[in-house]
Amino acid sequence: MKSRRRPYAEQRPHDLGGGVWSVPVPIPGNPLGYTLVYAVESPQGPVLVDAGWNHPDAWDALSGGLRSLGFDVSWVRGVVVTHFHPDHAGLAGQVRDASGAWIAMHENDAELVRLMSEYAARDHDDFQTDMLRRAGAGPAEAGQATGARPAPPATPDRVLRDGDLVDLPGRKLRAVHTPGHTPGHICLHLEDADRLFTGDHVLPGITPHIGIYPFDRDDVDPLGDFLASLDRIGELGSIEALPAHEWIFQDVATRAAEIRHHHEDKLEHLHALLAERAEPLTIWEAAAMMTWNRPWDDLSPMLRGMAAGEAAAHLRALEAAGRVGRLAGVDPVRFHALDS
């Protein structure tokens, strides 16, 4: 039986044994509630797995939580970021300022951070609006669904590749490249204790957002990458998973298989929707017909934009599998089923 997701107010720092601790760090105004930041012991100071959202309340929770466990944030040796999203990488720069720690992330996400740092906010808004228009959103919806862009995270000092060992004296913490949620998402296998920090790749009660940006790209397949990454994590067996959200759980392989089946069902349902339509669908139309955690009409403009990104990833996976085609030379882009 799965645990209940507890609100942030009920969360406390915990000693998880074996030289690993967890610190819940709030995400203000976000239904996820908090990020679980982990500290891994080493003789030269703890290394953090993720750092939390860049907000004063989050900083107080992280630094105070470490203090309650017997650490000072100034002792932190390094921060390994599972992926560049702001609820994971946001405070890494502040930790570095306080301690001199290094920051590491996968080379693919490090490149995205660099590009984000060079991209003006106005250019970002124009890019988002045009991307939504090409997906089939009307002008009003395209303008409303963009949302504010968080400040780019701190540029990492070190990059990791699949199989690299993290600089963690006395321990064996290995990066496992698990793209999908982001191109450079990593899980971290603590091999000396056979525990897996899963970031957002495998969560116990929800599935991570898998989108494609821009929506109409045809040169990448993030959902296909994600499903392959799930299979790879499944090969690790029934080890303990330490995710970035919700709760710690046993048997990562079983949960990875459940998430794969969830997306396989969505792919079959989407293909059936396309097959029964007389006319090809835009990404926006497909998203409006898919099943989400609430009805399409109840989704905010920002959530509709995220749903469209996920619909685009599913359409692209079907296209890569030869089950869906896109019409050439049309704007907005449209997709149709290729088999029954």
TrEMBL record:
<protein>
    <submittedName>
        <fullName>Glyoxylase, beta-lactamase superfamily II</fullName>
    </submittedName>
</protein>
<dbReference type="InterPro" id="IPR001279">
    <property type="entry name" value="Metallo-B-lactamas"/>
</dbReference>
<feature type="region of interest" description="Disordered">
    <location>
        <begin position="137"/>
        <end position="158"/>
    </location>
</feature>
<dbReference type="InterPro" id="IPR036866">
    <property type="entry name" value="RibonucZ/Hydroxyglut_hydro"/>
</dbReference>
<feature type="domain" description="Metallo-beta-lactamase">
    <location>
        <begin position="34"/>
        <end position="245"/>
    </location>
</feature>
<dbReference type="Pfam" id="PF00753">
    <property type="entry name" value="Lactamase_B"/>
</dbReference>
<dbReference type="InterPro" id="IPR036388">
    <property type="entry name" value="WH-like_DNA-bd_sf"/>
</dbReference>
<dbReference type="InterPro" id="IPR050855">
    <property type="entry name" value="NDM-1-like"/>
</dbReference>
